[in-house]
């Protein structure tokens, strides 16, 4: 296949809006293709396929959201066609809709952001049913008893061996840490108040858990860094916790050419104020810190007005949400590993808190100078559903759109944030970074996010001419073009044409197989045998994700030997 | 006034999804066009004329000037008058589930019994039932926080369980008894039950429920005072206190064991 004459942005390979051809053969980008298939992309924007590094798209809590929200299911229903299965839902779409909708946006890869090992079979059962996109899942470690014990005992080698085992057991891709220590404390109705608050019965602190997991992550040379959801997330004044967390790990070095820590959905961790009354943005403080520390990355967690379904392993947070909003609430105890919660809510333009939250996400993205440190996300479906990504990109590219939106919001959004004064408008190169190249690099996906020879043949083509359209003024046109790709090409196959899904191939599932010394692995196994005998509700043999659950794996090797 | 008369050609064994039977949809159509409207019978797509004998006025008329008369057994015909905004539907016989779903205006007169989910998420207009109604009269869609928001439902007979579930506005009047949990989760509106009711107002946040017969009252309701309305003495309660509710419950007689 040759994609002819498009205006290509490929930041990883230094291509900045050049008119050029892209050739694909056998699913990969090549110098020259001979098969003769041609796609005319003249006057159109050509980007590598989009990569979503953080979305809740599969597994137990997503399904809990679906079960709790039949009223969400009826929004976004689309009947089946000869090719497509039926779609349902807006904030918690069914598996098929997730694949179709990503493809229509030009996205070809999406990572599920939080899977406890115990629920990993369920996660993979759903990932298998999500069509088209490549995917992976991050595995939760921040409240796991084995982790807490290794940290308590100062046994880094055993911790690394457990992380490797846990990734294998869950067929997971990376180390996710959610409110470290807080999830365990929630088992007793408590939480940790900061990074130095001891976890009941273990005596370790979040500071120690994060540091040890980061050191284990780097010892194992995993492709992705630790992926952190901070303590005190969602609470006024939490920016201090966020900054304290980052300062506590400044001395840790990355073992690979990537960040040493990714802080996720930063919008929820950049709050000032002593309570909801004096709630304000501290995004400038957070971005300022990131501008001085290039070893850290973040994603926006942008808020989208309207319906959302919050779902997280941060169970005490969800309890707070449910009490505050008198909303439906689901709470889940995941044995020795985590707790979790789900709460549906509606973000309102005239709600002062929501309006400020909306501004904070944009401030973070625009005040953080290096786009390689930033990923565009909505923390789907916590900040809002991923189908709104075109809206977020349009906001990043147009100050006049931001001003127009601000005018419809509660006026505290302007008074308690710096957004009105921010002039920056992202260009197409920066957009290509925060939606493709950046997330691929941050995840450590060498064949994603670019169009160099050997890259996956994943390309999105949008019917907008970057040489003619001024996104600053013509933001509506930009948004419309991004919402329905002219073409989405996945592995060299056209899957979307004119915004409609025309082919439904099955994507691959990334997971990381990290090797560790045998004696360390044996010590972990001995611990686990005891834990399964004493505490788990199931046998270890029924716990591991077997190969049958991941029919099209893409295994990335890592480890210490 | 444009009048269209519809009679079933046969008995239905599987439900018919007949949301197309509505004054808003019929108004601009000729009888022949109405006959060709598509509906689902079970998993099969059919036309109205496959199932019904249809006669009446051919000329288009504004929706408000439309009367549809359904004569016969429509107890397995669902969603009649869904989302109608004006006009009149008269049903001489029983009607199936979801009649008057989300209607915002006009009138449905049922000379017979109504099925479940009568007037679900209704926003305006009026539904009158001469017989009994099923469960979930004026209720919400599963999972939504609001059911009926406006309009009026009058059931001369009795109603089933979950009458006015998540009611947010409008009034529901039942001549006879109501089943379990009338007005559960209410956030507004008014329910009047002529007969008896079991555990009214559970989890209600606001709104009013009046039981002119005997009620089994939840222990999470606080008895405030005795009041007289239309010559009947009622015990007035505040609740549901498990949800910090400010709803008002009036019961003419309180069943022993409840309090």
TrEMBL record, chain A:
<keyword id="KW-0560">Oxidoreductase</keyword>
<dbReference type="InterPro" id="IPR050378">
    <property type="entry name" value="Metallo-dep_Hydrolases_sf"/>
</dbReference>
<dbReference type="InterPro" id="IPR012027">
    <property type="entry name" value="Formylmethanofuran_DH_asu"/>
</dbReference>
<dbReference type="InterPro" id="IPR013108">
    <property type="entry name" value="Amidohydro_3"/>
</dbReference>
<dbReference type="GO" id="GO:0018493">
    <property type="term" value="F:formylmethanofuran dehydrogenase activity"/>
</dbReference>
<protein>
    <submittedName>
        <fullName>Formylmethanofuran dehydrogenase subunit A</fullName>
        <ecNumber>1.2.7.12</ecNumber>
    </submittedName>
</protein>
<dbReference type="InterPro" id="IPR032466">
    <property type="entry name" value="Metal_Hydrolase"/>
</dbReference>
<dbReference type="Pfam" id="PF07969">
    <property type="entry name" value="Amidohydro_3"/>
</dbReference>
<feature type="domain" description="Amidohydrolase 3">
    <location>
        <begin position="39"/>
        <end position="496"/>
    </location>
</feature>
<dbReference type="InterPro" id="IPR011059">
    <property type="entry name" value="Metal-dep_hydrolase_composite"/>
</dbReference>
From TrEMBL, chain B:
<dbReference type="InterPro" id="IPR036485">
    <property type="entry name" value="Glu_synth_asu_C_sf"/>
</dbReference>
<dbReference type="InterPro" id="IPR017550">
    <property type="entry name" value="Formylmethanofuran_DH_suC"/>
</dbReference>
<comment type="pathway">
    <text>One-carbon metabolism; methanogenesis from CO(2); 5,10-methenyl-5,6,7,8-tetrahydromethanopterin from CO(2): step 1/3.</text>
</comment>
<protein>
    <recommendedName>
        <fullName>formylmethanofuran dehydrogenase</fullName>
        <ecNumber>1.2.7.12</ecNumber>
    </recommendedName>
</protein>
<dbReference type="GO" id="GO:0018493">
    <property type="term" value="F:formylmethanofuran dehydrogenase activity"/>
</dbReference>
<keyword id="KW-0560">Oxidoreductase</keyword>
């Amino acid at each position: 296949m040759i994609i002819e004459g498009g205006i290509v942005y490929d930041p990883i390979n230094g291509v900045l809006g050049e008119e050029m051809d892209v050739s694909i053969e056998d699913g990969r980008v090549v110098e020259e293709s001979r098969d003769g298939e041609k796609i005319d992309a003249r006057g159109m924007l050509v980007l590598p396929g989009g990569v979503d590094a953080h979305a809740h798209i599969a597994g137990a809590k997503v399904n809990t959201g679906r079960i709790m929200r039949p009223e969400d299911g009826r929004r976004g229903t689309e009947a089946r066609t000869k090719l497509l299965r039926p779609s349902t839902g807006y904030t918690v779409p069914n598996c098929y809709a997730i694949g179709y909708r990503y493809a229509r946006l030009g996205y070809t890869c999406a990572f599920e952001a939080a899977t406890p090992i115990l629920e990993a079979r369920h996660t993979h059962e759903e990932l298998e049913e999500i069509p088209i996109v490549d995917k992976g899942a991050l595995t939760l470690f921040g409240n796991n008893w084995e982790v807490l014990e290794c940290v308590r005992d100062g046994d880094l080698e055993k911790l690394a061996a457990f992380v490797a085992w846990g990734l294998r057991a869950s067929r997971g891709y990376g180390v996710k840490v959610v409110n470290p220590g807080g999830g365990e404390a929630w088992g007793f109705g408590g939480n940790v108040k900061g990074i130095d608050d001891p976890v009941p019965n273990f005596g370790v602190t979040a500071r120690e858990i994060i540091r040890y997991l980061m050191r284990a992550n780097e010892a194992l040379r995993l492709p992705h860094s630790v992926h952190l959801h901070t303590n005190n997330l969602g609470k006024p004044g939490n920016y201090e916790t966020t900054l304290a967390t980052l300062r506590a790990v400044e001395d840790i070095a990355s073992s690979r050419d990537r960040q040493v820590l990714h802080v996720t959905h930063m919008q929820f961790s950049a709050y000032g104020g002593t309570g909801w009354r004096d709630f304000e943005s501290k995004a400038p403080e957070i971005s300022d810190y990131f501008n001085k520390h290039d070893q850290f990355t973040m994603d926006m967690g942008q808020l989208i007005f309207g319906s959302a379904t919050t779902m997280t392993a941060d169970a005490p947070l969800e309890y707070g949400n449910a009490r505050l909003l008198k909303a439906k609430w689901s709470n889940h105890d995941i044995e020795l590993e985590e707790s979790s919660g789900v709460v549906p809510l509606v973000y309102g333009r005239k709600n002062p808190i929501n309006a400020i939250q909306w501004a904070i996400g944009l401030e973070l993205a625009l005040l953080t100078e290096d786009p390689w440190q930033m990923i565009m996300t909505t923390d789907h479906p916590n900040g809002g559903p991923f189908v709104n990504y075109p809206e977020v990109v349009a906001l990043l590219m147009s100050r006049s759109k931001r001003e127009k939106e601000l005018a419809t919001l509660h006026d505290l959004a302007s008074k308690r944030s710096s957004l009105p004064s921010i002039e920056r408008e992202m260009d197409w190169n920066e957009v290509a970074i925060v939606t493709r190249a950046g997330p691929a690099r941050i995840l450590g996906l060498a064949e994603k996010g670019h169009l160099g020879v050997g890259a996956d043949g994943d390309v999105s083509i949008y019917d907008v001419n970057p040489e003619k359209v001024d996104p600053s003024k013509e933001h509506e046109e930009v948004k419309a073009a991004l919402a329905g790709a002219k073409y989405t090409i996945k592995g060299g196959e056209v899957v979307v044409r004119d915004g409609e899904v025309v082919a439904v191939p099955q994507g691959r599932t990334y997971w990381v197989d990290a090797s560790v010394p045998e004696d360390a692995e044996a010590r972990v196994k001995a611990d686990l045998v005891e834990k399964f005998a004493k505490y788990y509700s199931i046998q270890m043999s029924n716990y591991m994700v077997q190969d049958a659950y991941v029919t099209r794996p893409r295994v990335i090797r890592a480890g210490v030997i | 006034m444009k009048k269209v008369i519809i009679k079933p050609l046969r008995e239905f064994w599987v439900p018919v999804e007949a949301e197309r039977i509505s004054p808003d949809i019929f108004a601009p159509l000729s009888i022949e066009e109405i006959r060709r409207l598509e509906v689902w019978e079970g998993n099969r797509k059919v036309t109205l004329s496959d199932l019904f004998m249809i006669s009446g006025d051919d000329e288009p008329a504004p929706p408000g000037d439309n009367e549809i008369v359904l004569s016969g057994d429509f107890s397995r015909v669902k969603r009649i008058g869904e989302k109608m905004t004006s006009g009149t539907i008269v049903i001489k016989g029983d009607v199936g589930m979801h009649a008057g779903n989300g209607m915002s205006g006009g009138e449905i007169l049922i000379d017979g019994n109504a099925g479940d989910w009568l007037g679900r998420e209704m926003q305006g207009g009026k539904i009158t039932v001469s017989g009994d109604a099923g469960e979930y009269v004026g209720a919400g869609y599963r999972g939504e926080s609001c059911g009926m928001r406006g309009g009026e439902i009058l059931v001369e007979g009795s109603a089933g369980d979950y009458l006015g579930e998540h009611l947010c506005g409008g009034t529901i009047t039942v001549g006879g008894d109501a089943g379990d949990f009338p007005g559960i989760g209410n956030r507004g509106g008014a329910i009047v039950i002529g007969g008896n009711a079991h555990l009214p107002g559970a989890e209600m946040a606001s709104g009013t429920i009046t039981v002119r017969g005997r009620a089994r009252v939840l222990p999470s309701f606080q008895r405030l005072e005795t009041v007289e309305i239309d010559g009947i003495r009622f015990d007035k309660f505040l609740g549901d206190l498990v949800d910090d509710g400010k709803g008002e419950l009036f019961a003419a007689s309180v069943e022993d064991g409840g309090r």
